[in-house]
Design a protein that fits this description.
Pfam families: ECR1_N, KH_6, S1_RRP4. One of its GO terms (molecular function) is RNA binding. This is Exosome complex component RRP4. This protein is of the alpha+beta class. Helix content is about 30%, strand content about 20%. The protein has ten helices and 17 strands. The two termini are about 50 Å apart.
Length: about 400
């Protein structure tokens, strides 16, 4: 309320100043008139009077308001007058007004068509309480329970079958670490001989001082001097890429960076998605032909960064390149980020091929337009799902 009243006061003062009057009484009258324009009354007469005043603003086209019935029409007219008054208060000339686009809330379309059905008749995508199978020969796995001699799903997700073992992998869940996974995490705390790392799991992961390479790739026993210099290696807020070394009984994950391809990350963009949308592959480090590189973490953290010119890093991944990134590389990184967000909104599996297909389909559009729902649908439809069945999030086998 304070921000709205302040805007009305400044707008009323601007109106009076432009008309050559600084009378406080006139300011209050103009302020009351603006309140009438912003208000949406249920009374028909007052609504007609308000709409008559609202139509004086010319920020939105009249065709937009004709297509919106009832209260939506009033909201569009209110937004039109709001922008007109704001631009008038700033003194912007009427012939140089910037175009303002407003998007009203709309119902989200169903994405059920993106999830196929198996040939055996059982559904791959299940909700809590759905019957997976009535065959007593199957074994119960994670996300399932036995009820009335039937195997029933306890979470909403994708059915996975390994021989006679049936489990349901949740579509939205925390990361459950497995040995050998590639993860991207953020340092949250520096402790004695270890770092705490946020990896999108239920518990914070652990990176031991003895499980990492020293700067320069030096191999020796860790000394007390190394423990005192831990904050010089990695400090709070740093992003690192690592591999899962072990999983404890409580679900906590132990990491290691005993390779030059792991370590501290430099300049780039971090995108957080659901771990179930990241496809498991032999390698999760990809140098894309568009001029950027990407790390697809199994924990749902995706790191996009410009492709380095020199692959060999003598510092062991502890010296970050802080040189300014050229504008073309920043545009490529921004486009890749928006493409990943578009694929995630349509529940598509993320891996190098799907991201490249989406990147090529997005080239006719501007980077900022990739966030619009209609453009997202067009880009995703442009990806040929018939030739690449792995793109469907529910059919991926991990």
């Amino acid at each position: 309320m304070g921000i709205g009243n302040g805007l009305l006061s400044r707008t009323a003062a601007a109106f009076s100043t432009r008309r050559g009057s600084a009378n406080p009484k006139r300011n209050s009258l103009v302020r009351s008139e603006l309140k009438l324009r912003f208000s949406v009354s249920k009374h028909p007469c007052k609504r007609r009077a308000s709409l008559a005043n609202w139509r004086k603003g010319r920020v939105l086209s009249p065709s937009h308001s004709r297509d919106l019935p009832g209260i939506d029409m009033a909201a569009a007219e209110a937004a039109r007058t709001f922008c007109a008054c704001a631009m008038t208060a700033t003194g912007a000339p009427s012939d140089k007004m910037a175009a303002v686009e407003f998007r009203l809330p709309a119902a989200r379309k169903r994405l059920a068509s993106n999830f196929p059905h198996s040939s055996g008749g059982d559904r791959d995508l299940v909700a809590p309480g759905d019957t997976i199978t009535t065959d007593p020969g199957y074994m119960r796995g994670h996300g399932t329970y036995l009820g009335d001699e039937k195997l029933v799903a306890s979470v909403a997700g994708v059915v996975e079958r390994v021989n006679k073992l049936v489990c349901v992998k949740a579509l939205k869940a925390r990361y459950n670490g497995e040995v050998g996974d590639i993860v991207v995490g953020r340092i949250t705390e520096v402790q004695q001989k270890r770092w705490k790392v946020e990896t999108n799991s239920r518990l914070e992961s652990v990176l031991l001082l003895s499980s990492m390479n020293l700067p320069g790739g030096e191999l020796r026993r860790r000394s007390a001097e190394d423990e005192l210099a831990m904050r010089d290696f990695l400090q709070e807020g740093d992003l690192v890429s690592a591999e899962v070394q072990a999983v404890f009984s409580d679900g906590a994950v132990s990491l290691h960076t005993r390779s030059l391809k792991y370590g501290k990350l430099g300049q780039g963009v971090l995108v957080q998605v659901s771990p179930s949308l990241v496809k498991r592959q032999k390698t999760h480090f990809h140098d894309l032909p568009c001029g950027a590189s990407i790390i697809l973490g199994n924990n749902g953290f995706i790191w996009i960064y410009p492709t380095p010119e020199q692959k060999e890093d003598e510092a062991g991944g502890f010296v970050a390149n802080l040189e300014p990134v050229p504008l073309p590389d920043r545009e490529v990184i921004s486009r890749l980020r928006n493409c990943i967000v578009a694929l995630v909104s349509q529940k598509m599996t993320l891996y190098d091929t799907s991201i490249l297909y989406c990147y090529e389909a997005s080239l006719p559009h501007q980077i900022k337009d990739l966030l619009k729902p209609e453009v997202v649908e067009e880009i995703v439809k442009g990806v040929n799902l018939l030739e690449i069945p792995e793109l469907r999030g529910s059919s991926s086998r991990r």
